[in-house]
Amino acid sequence: MSDAYLRFWGVRGSYSAPFESHLGVGGNTSCVEIRVDDHVLVCDAGTGIIPLGNQLMGQSDIRKLLIILTHYHWDHICGLPFFVPAFVPDWNINFFGPGQCDQEIKEHVSAQMQAPYFPVGTETWLANIDYLQPAEDQLINYGPLSFNYQNVHHPGTTYGYRVNVKGKTVIYVSDNECLYLGKSIDRQYEELNEEEKLLYDEMKKEEYAAELDLVRGADILIHDAQYTPEDYEKKRGWGHSCYIDTVNIAIEAGVKELYLYHHDPNYNDDAMEEIYQHSLSIIREKKSSLKCHIAKEGLIVSLD
Amino acid sequence: METDSPSVVVIDDSPSIKTLFEAGLRDSNLELKVFNSAENSLDYLKQHKPGLLFLNIKMPGKDGLTFLKELRHLPLHKDTSVVMISSKDYAQDRSVAEKLGALDFITKPMPIQVITDVINKYLQPSSSN
Fold first, then answer.
1. Minimal Cα–Cα distance from B69 to chain A, Å?
2. Domains and CATH numbers, chain B
3. What is the rounded distance in angstroms from the CA atom of residue B62 to the CA atom of residue B41?
4. What is the pLDDT of residues B90-101, one digit of tens each?
5. Which of B10, B13, B16 would you mutate first to test chain A, the one with the most A CBs within 10 A?
6. Mean pLDDT of chain A
7. What's the rounded Cα separation, in Å, for the pair A38 and A44?
8. Residue A264 structural domain
9. CATH number of the domain to which A205 belongs
């Protein structure tokens, strides 16, 4: 195994999918580990963080990590009550996520571990726990890693992260309903007068440029691709992208490698294979050099 | 410090939104100030209490909901009239905005007339120039 890598520990969105028909892709919810030597950065704490924690407990050289949360919906935090390193005294765990200050981040992380929803609270965590203050410039350094964060289109305050690691850029956008405004404009276009049409045409361009800027420069992009076009129509406004939009944005932004992520728990391995094959056909049609993958549990990607 | 300015302040990163509000205010003599980020508006808002503050949610830098929470901690803005303007038409965003005392939540794309109507609804005639 290389010194620098990322590993997918959980790739599902919404809720876990521990069904035999789904296990080729995986059933745990969002969690990605980015490792450089003994520095561990964990993106989100869905059920995937549980096996990650168990593995870390067996590695005597590591006793610290930083967990960055995109937001506090359950599928991104529900592994924390079962994350063993938090309950062990010699561990140092830092958290970061949306919030006005470190205290607010602490409140959000702790809220799910309260009676009657869970038998013990975060006061039973024996590790040294710290909550990082939001940075003025939105840039945070962590050993050989650094990252910044941006707001994305999802219910509540939700971040996407741009992680710099060994000269590479890994962009993690687990939940983002891309091009939502443009689609809203299209649906209401005929109700607008000519002056409004001109203005909203401009606004569509601005939104499109912002979506490209969000992911531009990514060597590796891990992005929400939860729905097929048919399901997106039914679940428009739920805060997730149709995989076709994700692929097209990645192509247009010049992303090198795309991992479709935050898979719908209703999609079994066959459905995911269809999404993959269609994504590849879009890339071929556009004669793009984009490399596209389905994020799968256990998949390790070298960052060297 | 000006605490009774009748201005309309808009915080939104979209350059087109300024044109949209200029159109919405074209028949009024209200002062319009537009900032492209929460951070860039802060010096002004520390000194001025607008008649009505329109606040986008998803922007570069601080998001509108986090910023509104901070504003409410400033004595000057404890009760400032705020209307959210966002493409984020999500129940969670509406709920948080309401808890932070936002008067209304209008979703993009809104016709220009909606801007005019909202200003007329929430800006008392006595506070306009």
1. 8
2. 8-120 (3.40.50.2300)
3. 11
4. 999 999 999 999
5. B16
6. 96
7. 19
8. 4-302
9. 3.60.15.10
